[in-house]
Design brief:
Blueprint (H helix, E strand, L loop, with lengths): L1 H25 L12 E4 L4 E3 L8 E6 L6 H18 L3 E7 L3 H10 L5 E4 L4 H5 L13 E5 L5 E5 L7 H15 L1
Parallel strand pairs: 3-4, 4-5
Antiparallel strand pairs: 1-2, 1-5, 3-6, 6-7
Helix pairs in contact: 2-5
Length: 179
């Protein structure tokens, strides 16, 4: 009985510590640092490499927990509806989740999305960007704006799924005006 209590106490301490461990990792990525490079499959099975964006334009990476859930659907549809504003600012949007390619294709088609969704099934990219939820293999809802040199220029960890696409378009204008 004593040993069981000791194990339960250790597990409780570990679980209490996990959110802080993720926050420490997330602090490693800051504005002004190079964006972690990656290659992932898009919803249509094609390969996407962040390095291919170098010199082309601005890149918006938005991480989200799960395709098809209410908040993620609102966010994807908001980006779909604001995509022309974002593209007018020489930027392209990519949504990243740990969903598999088939689920992303279904979600992409169902909501008539006009930008690529990227599959990170092993959560390596999600982890590299410091947005992996503790314990579960899902991303937190964060947005990274990356300049054409692949330098992180904006990080947003306080994301409103319905409103952030418009906010991203405004941030892109401000960031580009400041350069």
């Amino acid at each position: 009985m004593q040993k069981k209590r000791h194990i339960l106490k250790q597990m409780a301490l570990l679980l209490a510590w996990l959110p802080f461990a993720a926050a420490v990792h997330a602090d490693l990525l800051t504005i002004g640092l190079p964006a972690p490079q990656f290659q992932l499959k898009a919803q249509d099975g094609t390969e996407f490499s962040l390095s291919a964006r170098q010199g082309i334009g601005w890149t918006v990476l938005y991480f989200y927990p799960k395709a098809g859930t209410p908040g993620c659907t609102k966010q994807a549809c908001a980006f779909r509806d604001a995509i022309q504003l974002i593209r007018n600012n020489n930027a392209e949007v990519y949504g990243i989740s740990t969903d598999d390619v088939k689920d992303l294709l279904d979600f992409h088609q169902e909501h008539k999305l006009t930008f690529n969704l990227l599959s990170d099934p092993d959560a390596k990219v999600t982890d590299a960007y410091g947005v992996k939820m503790p314990v579960v293999k899902m991303a937190k809802r964060w947005i990274f704006i990356i300049d054409p040199s692949l330098i992180i220029r904006q990080i947003d960890d306080d994301v409103d799924p319905a409103l952030n696409a418009q906010k991203v378009a405004e941030q892109l204008k401000k960031l580009q005006a400041a350069k």
